[in-house]
Structures are given as structure tokens and as C-alpha cells.
Amino acid sequence: MTTLLSVQGVTKRFGGLQALTQVTFDLPEHQILGLIGPNGAGKTTLFNTINGVYAPDEGRVLFRGRDVTAAKPYHLARLGMARTHQIVQPLNELTVRENVMAGACFGHKRHGLAQAARVADEVMARVGLAPRADLPAGSLNVAQKKRLELARALAAEPHLLLLDEVLAGLNPTEIAEMVQTVRKIRDQGITILMIEHVMHAVMALSDHVLVLDFGQLIASGPPQAVAADPRVVEAYFGDPKLAQQLQGG
Amino acid sequence: MSGWRRHTGLLVPLVVVAALVLWPIVTGKAADRESAFTLLKAVALASSLNILLGYSGYVSFGHIVFYGFGGYVGFYLLSAQGWPLWPALLAAGLAAGLLAFLLGAAILRLRGAYFALATIGVNEALKAFINNFEPFGGPIGMTLNFRVYQAYGGAAQALALAFYLAAALALAAVVVSHFVRVSRFGLGLQAIRENEDAAEIMGVVAPRAKTWAYVLSAVIPGAVGALFFFKNGNIEPHDAFPLHASIELLVMVMLGGQGTVLGPLLGALAYQGMRGYLVTSDFFGDIQLSVSGVLLLLIVLFIPTGAVGWLRRRVAPLRRVLA
User: Fold this and answer.
1) B202, A156: Cβ pair inside 8 Å?
2) Which of A51, B21, B177, B205 is deepest in the core (most CB within 10 A)?
3) pTM score, two decimals?
4) Vertex B62, ends B140 and B161: CA angle to 5°?
5) H-helix or E-strand containing A33?
6) CA distance B207 to B201
7) A-B interface: how many C-beta pairs under 8 angstroms?
């Protein structure tokens, strides 16, 4: 299996706060890698470091065999990385279709507008946004905005998709639908790195799970092994509800 | 949207510009031509500013700097170097574009109010520089030798020529504004306007897109400046870099509707119409600029999307026509 993404000894500090310490892992192609950890563990910071929002203080990030440690987000988008945001970031004044077209236009396929419109229509149909294509993105509700985030990232036809809590705030039915959607995306050959708090979903979807706590990787392995790891259970004891979910999931 | 349907939004703006050009031709009055010249100049400047302000969301408070700089470069080439009008206008436009390119590298990394403040600083700095720059006449400025007009068949013919050139520049500004709006480049700019960080993550190369938007918004004002001062016959620093004119341009764009093709055009006409009335009225004559200040405040508070944005939102069938 080819390694798509390789994170090597990445460290990130914000002033006195050690957000990430020596994080190292490889992500092979066509896998779903789940990233879990208590709130404030550094999961989103790790995403931001991978996709160029922050440059790491130490360490390297390799994507498709290239050193992208100092690359900007748009360089990574053009190399085939797309992401969704935990806090949705719609382009409010633009229509849903224009939002999704922007994903297709500026992703690594670099489509022209006409082709981007075709890709957008296809992706909107897939995530169930087609009826709202001509509405301003700002008028969508939160669940729809989450789907818009996903549609925009998918329209880029990325090699690697970073999903930051796409299940948060969805009801059980919506979660079940989204789990199916994520699985289909992987089956199309897109590699996925996902941050998720909904344990049963991340355990069911992931081929491999990483656990981050206080900026350090404390466990890594197949979902069931990680869930049984005493260090992981301990990390989650600060959050009894999550610990319970972990054991139950 | 494909084929001609993409371009329906250009229809109304073209009709408005054509009407402005035809008006003095039909009436045959020189005074109407002067009014139409002023309106076309405002249309060209406001539509250009809209490329930056309306599409990318960056507020240039000192946009008149490109008009003044282009004016000086063009005027210098015409009067001191004896260039013909056409290449002088072209050179003025390119010089303004180059200035925007260099400035962009320095100040487009600033966001929001910081960028707006920097553009004011640039305008004032360039005015101060030219005040002390002897080849451009320093504080006295430059005056055109009347013989320059002879090449065009005399002053009257030169004035007529200037009118048609102003029409061509206004038309060019409107057409460029439209093509930016419906292009992939324009989609990238609008993504930047809505959320620059998200746009970069989607792959929009924001520094490059913003720089080109700034350059595109500067070229036509540069040529307009050269044309205006050619017609005017003399140029001085305080005429070339009037900060209040920058603010008036903002009012025009905001009044009509930023981020639309028709908005800045309508805003320019409405504002100039209002200004004409205020300047000649007994009561408002001396305080007409404060009226534009109050107007800007009211627009920002109550109709931030401007007249065209307001109409588009309320009357759905107009969305295709009012772009």
C-alpha cells in the first residue's frame, strides 16, 4: 500500500501552549483513519497543520511523496487535499451551487466553470442538496450547511479528504445516512482522515484509529484494540460520558 | 448557466451606457455633453472600484490615487514628451496598473479596516511626493500647451474626442466588470469576499487573485485620469488626489449595489444627479459632501447590499436581468 500522507514528528506551540508534541503517523491510500481524543487534545490543530493553515514548529508533513511542511492551504488544495470545518464556513451570499462549484474550480482538477457546474450538480444530488441549489448558502440550516461543507470538499475530487466532525449536531437518522455517505466516498477511492466524537460511528467506519491527548498520540491501532487500551480509557476518564461511549461502542 | 444566458446581466448596463452616449448627440448641446462626460467618468471609476470592493470585498478608501497617478503620467507624456493621446492613455492605464501591482504586494495582506487605512495613506503619500517632484511641476502642477489640441483639429474637436473616449472607457469598465463577475476568477474573488480562509482552503490562491483584482480595478481609472486632465488642460496635486472623491466613489458603489454590474452604474448616475442638485442649491451648496457622508452611513445601516441587491432579494424574477 502506498502512503498518501506522512506526518513526521510534528510539533506546534502557541506561545506557552504545547498544542502538538512529536505527532507521527502514516496514512495509506484508500483507508479511513479516525482521529479521536478529548476536547482540546489538538485534533483540529493537527488538521490545520496538515493542510497548511499553520506551519509546524518542528517536524515534516509529506503528501503524495512531496514535502508540504511549509505549503499554503491553496497549494495543498491543488495537490488534492480537501477538508470540511468543524464550524461550518459557507460562502453565505453565494448560492449553494456556486459554493460547490468553487470547490470544483479550485481543487486539484482545476475545472472551468461549465465543467464545475456539472460536477456540482452531480455532487449536490449525491448529498441531497439539489433542491436547494439556487438558494443562498446562508439560508441553509446547520445540518444542510454540514452537507454543503461535505459537497464542497467532494466537488474538489480530492485524493485526501479531512473531515472535521461531520456528524456533530446531526440526529441518529442523519448520522446513519452520513456514515453510509462516508463509506461510499472511501469506496470511490478517496482516502479519509476524520475527527469524530460519535464513537460508534468512528469505530464502525475506521480502518485504523489514532488517539490524541494533550497534543500527543497515546494510542494507534485497529478500532477494537484502541478502545480496549487502558491509556485511552484513562484519557477519557476526564470525560465520563465519552469513556462510557468508548466502552460501549 | 451557459452560452448567452450567462451574459443577460450585461444587457441593462449596456443600454444605460448607450443612452448616456446618445443623449448629447441627440440634443446636440455642448452642455449636455459635459454632463454626460462627468457621468461616464463616474461610471468608469465606480465600475472599476467595484471589481475590488464588490467582488473581493476589499475596501479601497483611496482609490482615486490611480486616477491621479494615471492623470500625472498621461499628462507628463502628453505635455513634456509630446506623446499622442492614445499611447498616453494606454501608458497611464498601465502605470496605474503597475502601481496597484506593487502596492498590492505590500498592502493586500492587510484585512478589513487596516487595508482601507493603508489605501488612504497611499493616496496622501503619493500626493505629498508629487507635491515635491519637480518633473511633474511640484505643487504648481503642469499646464498643457494649447498647441497639443491642434493635433486633433483644435480644442473643440479635442473635447468631442475626449467625450467618445470617456464613453469607450466607461463601456470597457462595465464590460470588464461583467466578465470578471461571470468568470472563474470572479468566483474566486467572491469566495475571498465571503470567507478568505475558507477560500484558501478550497484552493483559491488569494494573494494572486486579490492582486489581479486590484490591478484590474486600477487600469481604467488611470486612463480616465489622463483623459480628464488632457481635457482639463492642467493638473495639480490637490485636483489629482482628492480624498473626498474616493469617498464619493464608495458611496456610488454602495448606493447602487456592490458586487453587481449594474449597481455601480446606477449609483454613479444617482449620486452625480444628487450632487448636481445639491451643489446648485442655496442650502446644501456648501455642505454637499456631508450629505454624501450621511448617505453612506444610511446605506451601510439600512441597505448594505445597495439598490440592486435590495431589488434582487425582493423581486426574484429580476435576478437574471439585474446582475
Assistant:
1) yes
2) B177
3) 0.92
4) 65
5) strand A32-36
6) 13
7) 77
Model pLDDT, residue B285? 73
Mean pLDDT in consecutive groups of 10 residues from the start of chain A, 249 residues: 93 93 96 93 95 95 95 96 93 95 94 95 93 94 91 96 91 89 92 92 94 94 90 74 63
Q: Where are the domains of chain B?
A: 3-246
In chain A, DSSP finds a helix count (H) and a strand count (E) of 10, 10
Q: Where are the domains of chain A?
A: 1-71+159-249, 90-157
Cβ within 8 Å, pair B187-A107: no
Q: If we measure between CA atoms, which residue out of B41, B72, B266 comes closest to residue B172?
A: B41
Bridge partners, A10 (sequence order): A23
Residue A92: closest CA among B57, B113, B110: B57
The pLDDT tens digits for B147-192 are 889 989 898 999 999 999 999 999 999 999 999 999 999 999 999 9
Q: Which three cell numbers stand for residue B296?
A: 453612506
How confident is the model over B275-296, as pLDDT tens digits?
Answer: 888 888 888 777 877 887 888 8
Dihedral sign for Cα atoms in the order B15, B20, B25, B26: positive
DSSP state of B266: H
Beta bridge partners of A219: A211
C-alpha cell at A154: 467532494
Burial class (CB in 10 A: 0-12, 13-18, 19+), A180: exposed
Taking CB atoms and an 8 Å cutoff, what residues of chain B touch A90?
Answer: 194-195
pLDDT at residue number A247: 63
pLDDT single digits (tens) B93-150: 999 999 999 999 999 999 888 999 999 999 999 999 999 999 999 999 999 988 889 9
SS3 per residue for A163-194: EECCCCCCCHHHHHHHHHHHHHHHHCCCEEEE
Q: What is the pLDDT of residue A239?
A: 62
pLDDT of residue B1: 47
Contact (CB, 8 A) for A163 and A190: no
What would the pLDDT profile of B201-249 be if each residue is shown by its tens digit?
999 999 999 999 999 999 999 999 999 999 999 999 999 999 999 999 9
3-state secondary structure of A67: strand
Q: Which residue has the cell 501591482?
A: B101
Between CA A195 and CA A187 the distance in angstroms is 19
Chain A residues whose beta carbon lies within 8 Å of the beta carbon of residue B203: 73-74, 77-78, 105-108, 156
Q: Which of A77, A92, A113 minimises the CB distance to B201?
A: A77
What are the C-alpha distances in Å from B3 to residues A32, A110, B127? 41, 21, 46
Mutate to test the interface with B, among A113, A119, A135 (most CBs of B within 10 A): A113
| Burial category of A76 from C-beta neighbours within 10 Å (exposed 0-12, middle 13-18, buried 19 and up) | buried
Alpha-helical (H) ranges within chain A are: 43-50, 73-79, 96-106, 113-127, 142-155, 172-187, 199-205, 223-228, 230-236, 240-248
